[in-house]
Specification:
The chain is of the alpha+beta class. It is built from 4 helices and 10 strands; from the N terminus they run H-E-E-E-E-E-H-H-E-E-E-E-E-H. Strands 4-3-2-1-5 form a 5-stranded antiparallel β-sheet. A hairpin with a 4-residue loop joins strand 6 and strand 7.
């Protein structure tokens, strides 16, 4: 079975995830360039679809392989569409009311459903999604997870937000996957 997975990845450039025994940071995502009984040569990609070099790994050090899963499918799409993650616009903000800056900034995002906002809360929790509605005290955001899944709407209090990140690379990745999964492209 191992040989079949590696061969298919090599022949079809199918994206797989390699987990190794000594990599505490996680795993590598990419496809097999070549392999034999002793080693695998692997083309690695960042989570943003950029080529990140070649990895040569001992077959004995491979703990497991993820294939044909949601993450691998998302990575294949991101790699194929990496140019869409390039920043296409320069966001201009004109904050007039310093005390009510949350409302001003977030209200501008309602008009643009193609921007995901990341909110870092006073509790240090982070939420990302599309701004659906905002008033002087609250906002409703359609939460989008890191693989583009719609997690539904949630109401937050504006006063709990300490940082906003608009349309950064991670947010553009989420939006690309969200649009793909919901056929908005």
């Amino acid at each position: 079975m191992l040989t079949d997975i590696l061969e298919r990845s090599k022949e079809e450039q199918e994206i797989i995830g390699l987990w190794t025994y000594d990599d505490e940071d996680g795993f590598w995502s990419g496809y097999v360039v070549d392999f034999n009984e002793e080693m695998v040569v692997f083309k690695h990609f960042t989570k943003y679809g950029k080529s990140d070099g070649i990895i040569i790994e001992s077959m004995q050090n491979i703990a497991s392989i993820d294939f044909n899963d949601d993450y691998s499918k998302c990575m294949a799409y991101i790699i194929k569409n990496a140019e869409k993650l390039e920043l296409q616009e320069d966001i201009q903000l004109n904050i007039k009311d310093i005390e009510n800056w949350h409302h001003e900034v977030l209200a501008d995002q309602i008009a643009n459903p193609n921007r995901i906002v990341r909110m870092i809360m006073e509790s240090d929790e982070t939420y990302c999604g599309l701004v659906e509605w905002v008033d002087d005290e609250n906002l409703v955001i359609r939460l989008i997870d890191k693989e583009g899944q719609d997690e539904g709407n949630t109401l937050f209090r504006l006063e709990d937000i300490k940082t906003l990140r608009i349309n950064d690379l991670e947010n553009r990745r989420r939006l690309l996957l969200y649009n793909w999964k919901h056929q908005r492209i």
